[in-house]
Known about the structure:
The structure is a single chain. The chain is of the alpha+beta class. Helix 4 (89-97) runs antiparallel to helix 5 and helix 12 (403-415) runs antiparallel to helix 13 (426-434).
Amino acid sequence: MFNKILIANRGEIACRVARTCRRLGIKTVAIYSDADLDALHVQSCDEAVHVGGSAPKDSYLLGDKIIQLALASGAQAIHPGYGFLSENADFALACEKAGLVFIGPPASAIYAMGSKSAAKTLMESADVPLVPGYHGDNQDPAFLHAQADNIGYPVLLKASAGGGGKGMRIIDSSAGFIAALESCKREALSSFGDEKVLVEKYLSRPRHIEIQVFADRHGNCVYLFDRDCSVQRRHQKVLEEAPAPRVSPEIKRAMGQAAVNAAKKVGYEGAGTVEFIAEADSEGNAGQFFFMEMNTRLQVEHPVTEMITGQDLVEWQLRVATGEPLPLLQDQLRIHGHALEARIYAENPENNFLPSTGTLFAMDMPAEQAGSIRIDTGVRIGDVISPFYDPMIAKLIVWGPERKTAVSKMRSALDDTHIIGLSTNVAFLGRLLRCEAFVKANLDTGLIAKNEKTLLNKDVKVELVDLAFLLAQRLSLDEEGAQFAGRESNSPWQRQDAWRMNKPCVRTFSFILDGEAETCSFQYCYEKQTIEHGDQHAKFSFHKHGGLIQLTLDGVRATARINAHPNYPNTFHLFRHGKHQVWHYHDPLEINYAQEASSGKLTAPMPGKVIAVHVKPGMQVKVGDPLLVVEAMKMEHTITAPFDGEVFEINYAQGEQVSEGDQLIIFKSAES
């Protein structure tokens, strides 16, 4: 076994690898960029060395420098994690030439599977079924357009060297092909340094099912069963589970054998994932399957496989890389129970899932339970989610004896996840776990799009109980303020309970949600408290324990957590039944100087870089016309005209960086 390895990655996966190494007594070396100076993965390793600037191209993608740092540290091997250099065959080869073990497959296997088009040709020779499409080298736009026309729409454009949903476009008609091709090639070149694409038939109800394979240098190869990754947005996975539901044992065995054959075909070693796409029927049952691609690395969703098999796949990687045979063979592997993984991202689902940046002021998550609840993260309270890297906050993984229990447990775990400081997808994930199609395992990659109205509901419905919790928070803060001021709590003249001699005290409170004010009145009379909102009213009492409030309304008890934002004491985050609402207490003595922006001023929805400007001052635009394109997190976001008008001013040029909220363009309405 190795004595010391360098982890050529950051964040959650670097912490994950370090955890297994610590258990095995292997010393670890972290690398960090300028932005990651105080990152959790740096503290999780035994040593840490600076690699470069904040942008990945200036740090985590510097293969030659990383190899030099590994040699200087005395490391014997490099674990690439996932992303960055993990599927870079040149890097794997350079490690070998430098005398370092690359903890992954041989460079030849990465070369063979690194190109989607080459991999499909290879699989075709191995009689693995392929989706109809063009995977060749001719990249002439007119030729690709003709291929798409011959295949029949809808078609899928996909970056040949891509992954993670980047460089992909679904095209519904011939008229939109060329524009989509240009955009796809730009994103592919930016993300992978290769603009080559392939064209495939787009299946109407595709299931995304993948097989975890493992091979050693002694000729052994096994598959550790299957995972379903069909629940996606923007071609990126949101929820994963193992084993895949609604797939017959016969199809699973056929997929497993095909995956093993694929791995053996390229002389594979270590961990890999063979991804298949299958057409689902009306109830979600998987039918005929087709080879999609092979990921020559450890997958983000590997924890669900670990939960149902009881195996540590990182330990398997380390043992195989030292030349040991596989710890178990196929007939020794067993499935136990069902596991789910939810990816918690800093993003705004209600705003087209745009990434969010900022400081994590609060991050409360359920307690980990061995074999039952697991949290993989690379951040903690006080850390900043920056625009330089993937905005993942954590992976929440749960296990149950069967799928129904696992789903229920995941709902509860998400309800107990409270994050403050930036937008997250936690509430969205909670609604997804309650979506009828997901509960019934009627899955396909279009599940989110088909249930958009339900899943993207912002929970704006205001209930009396919500206002009662806010009122309890406000009253408790008044009381805490009185105690802080040193008032005598046993003096009737110093108490903050609104006691009056002969008649009740009535106070009015106003709270604001999404710009809309909600008013409630609070009445105190002889130790009896009542809350009223519109035509609703109830007797009211509460107890507060830290951030947890226990409420009683007309004898019915309810519990919720309320956190005040550390920088804005009148901003309350209400967490209840998986719902997260951000309320502002309207202090009647507070003056609001904020002014609404003109509707003709478009601002940047996220931090990023302007990569294309389609208009000039003086140009006439129609509603929906593309104005400019901002790139963030390797994804393109087109800013379009909200109404007909004339471009008046452009504040940023192509290539310039913008921050969230920066004013990009000013234009006049056609009616002004």
